[in-house]
């Protein structure tokens, strides 16, 4: 999106709470890029923004109890999704105070409208946009995918665990399989001689350090298991033959970008936990139901048979099924940045024309 705004000679401000954000290194007179700090100081700055259009990757701005209030001086607060997922695992009230949602796909429309109806909210503007995050992953992986297929395709028989690399990528907190199931099933896979990559969620690294230290202690004896703490997960995604995860959206990254199969370990939430998320009002997770078309979801008591299921899924999954699903459910694949940049510019112009002003301003915020 940033690149397309610059190509269109559009001035804008980019605000981030990440001191290592690569956008801070962009040197262009059209882009006012700023690190605004962390914690309450940053929240206050966002809460007092004055802008025609604010594009935010962060949900829940303005939600009661969330540290970032909705500034009354923002005319159009726009949300862009940062991964392929539906609203079920967003915290309750996640988009209630947004004016516009940039849709990944048509499947999101009835979900958003249902929440608006339940809460008696005005209808948001819903724009068929796509997913810039996915477009970037596809662009980076394209050459590697072709090279990998030329070299590796049809070489592995999917009969010998020592030939197979399994990526274990849990979510964090109460929805992460490390916290819910511990390390027992991982140890069993290691003993079966699978090559294992364990990649904790970046948020888990921040808030579950004791849990990860405990896991590292239990698993350090296995030489066929490596940990991946790199912020960029593309190396592990490329290296793995199959992915095991829980509710994490990394499953879609793996399938859509690398056309490889995944296995879901279902997490059963207590009623108390579910009340904190949009699933409590939606009544179901679109993603979890839809993913059964292209992935395998473990049934009760199948965790002990995971080694056999890995081999079975590898043999039975086809690229065609995954690609058909991806192309059906994502708008503007490969060009979402252009679509979003054009929308932001047009929205800002329209707001200024209504006020008969000549200048317009766009603010992009990322947490």
Q: What general outline do the C-alpha atoms trace?
A: globular
Largest sheet: 7 strands, parallel
Order of helices and strands: HEEHEEEHEHEHHEHHEHEHEHHHEHHHE
**Class from helix and strand fractions:** alpha/beta
Give the uncertain stretches in residue-range form.
Answer: none
Q: What's the tally of helices?
A: 16
Q: What number is the mean pLDDT?
A: 90
| Total beta strands | 13
The level of helicity is 40-55%
Rg, please?
Answer: 22 Å
Report strand order across the widest sheet: 2-1-13-3-4-5-6
Task: Write down the oligomeric state.
Answer: single chain
Strand content: 15-25%
Termini separation (Å)? Answer: 16 Å
Descriptive overview:
There is one protein chain. The chain is α/β, with parallel strands linked by helices. It has helices at residues 2-7, 40-47, 108-119, 132-152, 177-181, 184-191, 202-207, 209-219, 234-239, 250-258, 271-274, 279-282, 286-290, 306-316, 319-329, 336-355; strands at 12-16, 31-35, 51-56, 74-80, 100-103, 125-128, 165-168, 195-198, 225-227, 242-245, 262-264, 296-297, 362-366. Helix 4 packs across helix 10 (250-258). It is globular, with a radius of gyration of 22 Å. The model has no long low-confidence stretch (mean pLDDT 90).
């Amino acid at each position: 999106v940033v690149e397309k705004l610059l190509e269109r000679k559009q001035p804008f401000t980019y605000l981030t709470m990440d001191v290592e954000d690569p956008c801070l290194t962009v040197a262009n007179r059209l882009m006012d890029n700023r690190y605004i700090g962390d914690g309450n100081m940053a929240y206050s700055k966002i809460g007092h923004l004055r802008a025609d259009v604010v594009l935010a990757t962060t949900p829940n701005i303005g939600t009661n109890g969330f540290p970032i209030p909705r500034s009354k001086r923002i005319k159009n607060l726009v949300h862009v999704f940062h991964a392929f997922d539906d609203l079920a695992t967003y915290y309750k009230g996640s988009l209630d105070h947004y004016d516009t949602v940039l849709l990944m796909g048509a499947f999101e429309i009835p979900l958003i409208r249902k929440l608006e109806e339940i809460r008696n909210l005005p209808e948001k503007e819903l724009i068929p946009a796509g997913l810039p995050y996915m477009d970037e992953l596809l662009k980076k992986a394209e050459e590697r995918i072709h090279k990998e297929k030329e070299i590796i395709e049809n070489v592995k028989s999917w009969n010998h665990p020592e030939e197979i690399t399994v990526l274990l990528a849990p979510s964090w907190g109460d929805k992460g399989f490390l916290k819910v199931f511990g390390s027992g099933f991982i140890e069993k896979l290691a003993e079966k001689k699978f090559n294992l990559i364990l990649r904790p969620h970046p948020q888990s690294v921040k808030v579950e350090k004791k849990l990860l230290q405990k896991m590292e202690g239990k698993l350090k004896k296995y030489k066929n298991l490596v940990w991946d703490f790199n912020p960029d997960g593309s190396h592990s995604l490329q290296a793995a033959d199959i992915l095991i995860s829980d509710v994490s959206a990394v499953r879609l990254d793996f399938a859509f970008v690398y056309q490889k199969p995944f296995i879901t370990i279902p997490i059963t939430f207590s009623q108390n936990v579910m009340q904190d998320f949009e699933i409590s009002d939606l009544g179901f997770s679109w993603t979890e139901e839809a993913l059964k078309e292209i992935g395998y979801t473990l049934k009760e008591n199948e965790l002990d048979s995971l080694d056999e299921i890995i081999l079975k899924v590898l043999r039975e999954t086809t690229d065609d099924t995954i690609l058909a699903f991806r192309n059906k459910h994502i708008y503007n694949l490969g060009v979402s940045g252009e679509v979003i940049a054009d929308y932001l510019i047009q929205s800002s112009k329209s707001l200024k024309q209504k006020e008969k002003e000549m200048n317009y301003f766009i603010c992009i915020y990322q947490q």
